[in-house]
Please model this.
Amino acid sequence: MPDIQQMFKEAWSNALAGVNAAEQEAEKVLNRIADAAGFSPEDVRRHAREFGERLTVQRRELERTIDDAVRRTANRFRIPSKDDLDALQKRLDAIAEKVEALAREKSA
Model:
């Protein structure tokens, strides 16, 4: 079975690459529109800043949506979180210590 974590990483990477490409394309379009409309350099900077801010907000929303979807999907598969694994490791360590102590008592 393929590593699910790796699949999620690849999907996330592809999503970010798509967002980056969209941002670059949007910047090109904005520059063409500015040239065609005869905007001043200050107008272009102002519009670009506003557009960039909207893109940033939308990108954060997209990232949050993807994170939520990944989390929901992982929960459906009952994949333990890092915290779950850490807690389990602590419990196993405590049990191993008890077993070792019992073995020492028995051999003494």
